[in-house]
Structure prediction request, 260 residues.
Amino acid sequence: MPELPASVRLALWVTAAWRSGGTIDDAVTSALPDVDAVGGGIRTLDLWRDLGERTVLVALPTSGDLAGMPRAAPDAVAAATDAEECLVAPGLGALLVPEWSTFGAPSVIESEGTTGPDAGTRVDWTAYDCEPVPTHRVEALDPRETTRLLTDVVLETTHRLDELGGRPFHAAAAREAVPRPSAWALPDDIPGQTLRAITFAATIGTAAAAGIDGPHDGPDAFTSTQRLDLLRALARAADRALADATNAAVSAIAHPRTSR
Prediction:
């Protein structure tokens, strides 16, 4: 089953833990049950809290699309773009960027691509400075508007794919790949409308990824290229919606009176 980005899960669980008096260890365990080892850099979250931070936001930048990414030094932007995700301390102006690696017996790594029983997944976190995120920017996020905008992109993309003809991806495979929200074990504090926005964005992102990674049976190279461009644009729209919906959820968890 596809997973929500680690930064999405951590932003939600850490904010929920801070509000309820829980620990970072509990939040990490809930957010990353599929990760075998988490580097010590995650303790930076304790420092953020000690310095007065009460929410953790998320950004999902990619090369050429830094929407939602706070201004930061080139090395910070490069690291976040390479990871395609990061945690953001909006008040302090700080980032935590993940770096993934695998570990295990050398024979397992070489012969099985680190997928054997003796292999594991590790994530390390590196801190960077960035500009603070204005409070009004987060407060203005509306999960209903996020869903509406993404729906418009989906309809337009579907129309243009239909015009190109052919089959952009195997529908059954895409349906099987769609994540089930009940399996994500997200915090209970997320309002229904916001949870639906997260679910919708993640589902569309999964469907777009199925088309990008699947077989390309276009009638010619030009059509295949156009189709891929449309699917990549859809995937980026889904990522932006997922980040916005997550940050709206973070705000709702931290400030229940503004829950949507």
